[in-house]
Amino acid sequence: MPAPDLYFALIHARTSVPNQWVEGFYHRLDLEVQRRADPPYGLRRGSLYFATAGDARKALANGVPRVRVLVPLYSREFLHEPPADFGNRLHRLNDSDEPPFVHPVLWEPHLPARRVNGLAQATSLGAAVQEYAEYGMVSICRLSAYTAELRQIIEELADRVVSAAEDPDQVPLWIRSRPALPMPARSPAARFLITVVRPHGRGVDWSPFGTDTGWVTDHARHAAQRLSLLPEIVLAPAAPGTANGFHESAGVLLLDSAVLDDPNARSIAERILRDMPPWMTVVMVIRPEGAGRAHDLAARARAMTRNGVQIARDAPELQRAIDEAVTKARRNFLRSRRSRGPWEDLP
């Protein structure tokens, strides 16, 4: 006999570290759903939430319980690369008439350039709260001035989740009565290329200063998102062949200093650093065991490129260097584009 279903799963664009605002939103929603729950046969109290990408990978590999409602938090990163547990549902134009029903939340005030699943119910959720559509749910979670609005939206969402989960044979009212939305106008994403250069066989994610500090790529990803950019992470030497391309995007190059001690990887790094456009910036990450050679490593890296190289030897320096590099790369790229055409010309 299969295990009873759970009420809902909250799905978001996960990284290697938890997002405190997503976590807080989930716990509030779960509490309100628990307060309203009166599970019939085949349903049990509870929900699913995975705080990090690693947590999600482990759970999905082992198998997860079924849920009646999916609550995705639509953000720029989510729309660009939907999490695996949302599957191919993002661009389904027709709502499902059986569980799991999809009820998104506009986490950021960014409507996608093409129709996505559940956009009407996501918009109607905050119909009585003007700030929801203007600033997104994440801003309402962050600002204490919106405590009442936060409670109002979470209670409305909990009502919708419970009604759908406890009566799965009926298409939820929030799907049947949804308003028709016009197709949004094309809104080109401001892409930001994060290129990773590491020794052969190593992936894009590494934490040289301890797992508590998160992946180096996550620091760059978050810095780009704070500037409303859409990050794309690629591992060299594949980077120049991507659709986005070095020469059509602002970007930063993250260089693992171990590359300089690997002859094969060093030759690839030299080529990439030589060919990269002048607006890109470089951050070289030096592991603690290489700190004593920092000056030598920095000199060798700077000799490979005309762009300049920022050095990160510990966690605070990494955060500072990446923030500065991402901001500078965007500024450089925009200056370059002014002489060649508007941002909207980007593919």
The count of domains is 2
Helix content: 25-40%
Strand content: 5-15%
Question: Helix count, per DSSP?
Answer: 12
Distance between the termini: 51 Å
Q: Give the mean pLDDT.
A: 84
The structure class reads alpha/beta
Form type: elongated
How would you spell out the order of helices and strands? EHEHEHEEHHHHHEHEEHEHEH
Low-pLDDT runs? 181-189, 239-245, 340-347
* Beta strand count: 10
Rg from alpha-carbon coordinates: 23 Å
Describe the biggest sheet?
5 strands, parallel
Walk me through the structure.
- This protein has 347 residues and is α/β, with parallel strands linked by helices.
- It is built from twelve helices and ten strands.
- It has two domains: 6-176; 191-345, Rossmann fold.
Write the layout of secondary structure elements.
Elements: E1 6-11, H1 20-36, E2 47-49, H2 53-62, E3 67-74, H3 76-80, E4 101-102, E5 105-106, H4 119-125, H5 130-135, H6 137-142, H7 147-166, H8 173-176, E6 191-197, H9 216-226, E7 230-235, E8 250-256, H10 263-275, E9 281-285, H11 294-302, E10 309-312, H12 315-338
Parallel strand pairs: 1-2, 1-3, 3-4, 3-5, 6-7, 6-8, 8-9, 9-10
Helix pairs in contact: 1-7, 9-12
